[in-house]
Design goal:
Blueprint lengths: L12 H12 L4 E2 L6 E2 L2 H8 L8 E2 L6 E2 L2 H12 L4 E2 L6 E2 L2 H12 L4 E2 L6 E2 L2 H9 L7 E2 L6 E2 L2 H9 L7 E2 L6 E2 L2 H9 L7 E2 L6 E2 L2 H8 L9
Length: 225
Amino acid sequence: YKCDYCNKEFKYEGPFQDHIRTHLGERPFACEVCNKTFTSHSYLQTHRKSHSDVYEHICPECSKGFHKKYYLQIHMRKHTRERPVKCEYCFKGFYSSGNLAKHVRQHTGEKPYSCDVCGERFSTITVMKNHRDWHFPENAYKCEICHKNFIRKETYRKHLLRHQEDKPFKCELCSRSFSVKFELKEHIASHSKDRPFACAECRRTFKTLSNLRRHAKLHTYRPKW
């Protein structure tokens, strides 16, 4: 079985169909706990374990838990700074084959993910999904305090925390305080010269994931509401 989108070949029809869904953006398997959707039943089964507090594999460096040994092995490379997967074009190293695949598209210009609403194509499924959401403004989450709209539920929830007065997360470098831990992590990155987050569309790099996501919106279609 050969994929018409990226020419990847499969021995069995099941994995082939699961792969095709990644290009089409189809996610028919939904978690009954949080409603998160997946392209295959095996991914759903793996996700279900995330709702369990029991972790079989624990990182000896930071005590973070994982449900699968493979995820722990990938995580450990962040501590050891090991990047065994190399790009054949520029020889840059990566933690995992998934990160390498996204990077290689910067060299090839491949855009295997298409929006099923307008047909526009993207190099990563994340950017494609963000783009697709803008076609349905009626599904947006609206903040009742400042009336700002959000397409993604997790972004909306993080935004609500910014309105609370309590800011328990403090930066040890400059004493600034934040209402959510994620914002503290992003702020700490601003003290560093590293720019580890790269745009899959234009290769521009950023210090924080939020800055990358904000930039990625420039590559997506956003109708006026």
